[in-house]
C-alpha cells in the first residue's frame, strides 16, 4: 500500500487525494446535491452532516486537497473570492485596526475603504513591498490583521511574508495572504509564518474560466478560524456543489497549468523588456526587477503567469494595442488556460493607483511564441 503522506503534491492533485467513491468504485468523486441530511433514530446526526450551508461532501474533497497543497490544517470554500476575503475582515470587531496593501485587487480595496470602514474597522493602506513601512504602521494591541497580496495585482510587487509575519505577530496581529497569483504551486505562505491563505479560486485553482469560487486555508483550527467557519454557515456564502465539483476537476491539472503559464510568462517578459514600444515590463522573474531576489526565495516554484506592460504613448496607445490583438482575449479575470489582456485603469476607474498606460496580461497555456507574435503586431513601433 502506498504511503500517501509522502506523495508529491503533483500526485495528490492529479488523483484528487486518491478519493474513490466507496459505494460505486468511481474514481471521480460524486456530486452531492442534497441540501439536508437524515437524523438517526436517536435524533442525532451520526455521520456529522446537518445542512448544506455548512456541510457538503463535495466541498470536503476540494477543501482537503487545498489544505494539503498549502500544508494547512483546514480549508473552507466560499461562493467567490470576495466572499472568502471579506469573511476574514467581517469576523473582526468594530474598532479593530487592519493593514492592507496600497496596491491590491481593486474590488477588495474598494470594499475596505467603504463598507469595512463604515462598519467600524480602522483601515490603513500601506506599501507592503516596504517591510519597514509595514512595521511602522503596526499599532501594538490595536492592529488585529495584516492583509498581504503577493505578487500584488497589477504591478506585481512582492511582500516579504516571513518578515511581516514576524513583526505582526510581535504586536498580536494575524497575517492573511492573498496568494491567488502565486498559487500553492509557487509559494507556501503558511510555511513562511502566515496564519491564513486566501485564493480567488475562480482563477488558477479552477483554471478554466467557468467557476466563481473562493477559498481560505488556515494554519491552525483556532478560535479565529472557527469564527470564519461559523460566519460562512450563518452568512450563507457557500459554493454550490456543482461548482465545487468543477473546481476539484480544475485543480487536478493545477501544476501542469501553472508551471506552463509561468514558463511562458518568463519567456514573454524577457522578449518584451527591450521592445521599443514599451516603457516598462513588470514581472518579478526579470533579474532587474527590484524584488527579484525576494521572488526567488519566496516563490521557489516560479514567478507566475501574470505580467504587466506599460505602453509608450499613454492610455490611448495602450487601449489601441489591446484593440489590435487576436489571440489575446480582452476580458477581465486571470489564471485561465486562455490568455487575457486588459487595460486595468479603465476597469478600476477614478481613484485607481494603476498607471493609465498599463496593460495587464494573464498568460495561458498557448505557445508563448504565438502570443508574442500577436502582441508584437499590435504594439506601437516605438
Explain briefly what this protein structure is.
The protein has 382 residues and is α/β, with parallel strands linked by helices.
Termini distance? 62 Å
Q: Which percent bin holds the helix content?
A: 25-40%
Strand content: 15-25%
SSE succession: HHEHEHEHEHEHEEHHHEHEHEEHEH
CATH class of the largest domain: Alpha Beta
Oligomer: single chain
The whole-number mean of residue pLDDT values reads 94
Fourth CATH level, the homologous superfamily of the largest domain = Type I PLP-dependent aspartate aminotransferase-like (Major domain)
Named CATH topology of the largest domain: Aspartate Aminotransferase, domain 2
Q: How many domains, in number, for the residues?
A: 2
Strand order, largest beta sheet: 1-7-6-5-4-2-3
Radius of gyration: 21 Å
The CATH architecture term of the largest domain is 3-Layer(aba) Sandwich
Determine the structural class based on helices, strands and strand pairing: alpha/beta
Tell the overall outline: globular
What does this structure look like?
- α2 packs parallel to α9 (241-251), α3 packs parallel to α4 and α10 (254-272) packs across α14 (368-378).
- This protein has 2 domains: 4-251, Aspartate Aminotransferase, domain 2 (3-Layer(aba) Sandwich); 254-378, Aspartate Aminotransferase, domain 1 (Alpha-Beta Complex), CATH 3.90.1150.
- Helices cover 37% and strands 15% of the residues.
- A 7-stranded mixed β-sheet has the order 1-7-6-5-4-2-3, sandwiched between helices.
- The chain has helices at 9-14, 57-70, 81-90, 106-119, 131-137, 161-170, 183-186, 223-235, 241-251, 254-272, 292-298, 314-324, 344-348, 368-378, and strands spanning 74-78, 97-101, 122-126, 143-149, 174-178, 196-199, 214-218, 278-282, 306-311, 329-330, 340-343, 358-362.
- The radius of gyration is 21 Å and the shape is globular.
- It is an alpha/beta fold and 382 residues long.
- The N and C termini lie far apart (62 Å).
Amino acid at each position: 500500500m502506498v504511503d500517501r503522506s509522502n506523495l508529491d503534491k503533483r500526485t495528490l492533485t492529479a488523483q484528487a487525494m486518491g478519493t474513490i467513491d466507496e459505494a460505486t468504485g468511481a474514481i471521480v468523486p460524486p456530486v452531492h446535491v442534497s441540501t439536508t441530511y437524515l437524523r438517526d433514530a436517536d435524533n442525532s446526526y451520526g455521520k456529522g452532516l446537518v445542512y448544506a450551508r455548512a456541510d457538503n461532501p463535495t466541498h470536503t474533497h476540494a477543501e482537503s486537497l487545498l489544505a494539503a497543497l498549502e500544508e494547512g490544517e483546514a480549508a473552507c470554500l466560499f461562493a467567490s473570492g470576495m466572499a472568502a476575503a471579506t469573511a476574514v475582515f467581517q469576523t473582526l470587531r468594530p474598532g479593530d485596526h487592519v493593514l492592507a496593501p496600497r496596491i491590491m485587487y481593486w474590488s477588495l480595496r474598494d470594499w475596505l475603504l467603504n463598507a469595512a470602514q463604515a462598519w467600524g474597522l480602522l483601515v490603513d493602506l500601506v506599501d507592503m513591498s516596504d517591510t519597514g513601512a509595514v512595521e511602522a504602521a503596526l499599532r501594538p494591541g490595536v492592529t488585529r490583521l495584516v492583509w498581504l497580496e503577493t505578487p500584488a495585482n497589477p504591478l506585481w510587487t512582492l511582500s516579504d511574508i516571513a518578515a511581516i509575519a514576524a513583526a505582526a505577530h510581535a504586536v498580536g496581529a494575524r497575517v492573511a495572504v492573498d496568494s491567488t497569483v502565486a498559487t500553492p504551486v509557487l509559494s507556501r505562505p503558511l510555511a513562511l509564518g502566515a496564519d491564513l491563505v486566501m485564493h480567488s479560486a475562480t482563477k488558477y485553482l479552477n483554471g478554466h474560466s467557468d467557476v466563481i469560487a473562493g477559498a481560505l486555508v488556515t494554519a491552525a483550527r483556532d478560535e479565529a478560524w472557527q469564527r470564519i467557519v461559523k460566519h460562512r454557515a450563518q452568512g450563507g456564502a457557500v459554493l454550490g456543489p456543482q461548482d465545487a465539483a468543477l473546481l476539484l476537476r480544475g485543480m487536478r491539472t493545477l501544476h501542469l497549468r501553472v508551471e506552463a503559464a509561468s514558463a511562458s510568462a518568463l519567456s514573454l517578459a524577457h522578449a518584451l523588456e527591450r521592445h521599443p514600444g514599451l516603457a516598462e515590463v513588470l514581472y518579478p522573474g526579470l533579474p532587474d526587477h527590484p524584488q527579484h531576489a525576494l521572488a526567488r526565495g519566496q516563490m521557489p516554484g516560479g514567478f507566475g503567469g501574470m505580467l504587466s506592460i506599460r505602453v509608450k504613448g499613454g492610455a490611448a496607445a495602450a487601449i489601441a494595442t489591446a484593440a489590435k490583438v487576436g489571440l489575446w482575449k480582452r476580458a477581465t479575470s486571470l489564471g485561465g488556460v486562455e490568455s487575457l489582456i486588459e487595460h486595468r485603469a479603465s476597469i478600476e476607474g477614478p481613484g485607481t493607483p494603476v498607471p493609465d498606460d498599463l496593460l495587464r496580461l494573464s498568460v495561458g497555456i498557448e505557445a508563448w511564441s504565438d502570443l508574442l507574435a500577436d502582441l508584437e503586431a499590435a504594439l506601437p513601433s516605438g
